[in-house]
Amino acid sequence: MAEQLKAGDIGLEFLAGELQSSHDPSGIVFTLLAALAGMEREYIRDRTLEGHESARTRGKTIGGASVTDDTMLTLAIHLREQNLSLRDIAAKLVITKGDMTRPRHAGSP
Q1: For every residue of 45-62, which 3-state class applies, written as one string?
Q2: What is this structure's pTM?
Q3: Is 45's pLDDT higher than 90?
Q4: Which of 36, 66, 108, 109 is most buried as measured by Cβ atoms within 10 A of its Cβ?
């Protein structure tokens, strides 16, 4: 990738901070920053997975709202086949992330 940037006469320029200046994209600064970004991405991924595992062990569910019975699932599939968005389907079925303990239908308390 660095070679492609250099061939296109594209450089790396820092506008502020201690590295403030222009740098060759095939140079050590570019390589070092790319490596650090990769390490940071892996660190964030690992911490996220650890958080999910911790939540699961405490009985928490990870992810968005879900349907609670076969009738609601059938209706959700039918609505999706009509090209409704997931947000619209959740609103029609009164699915909320905060109240997933029992099925609720429009008009119920």
Answers
A1: HHHHHHHHHHHHHCCCCC
A2: 0.41
A3: yes
A4: 66
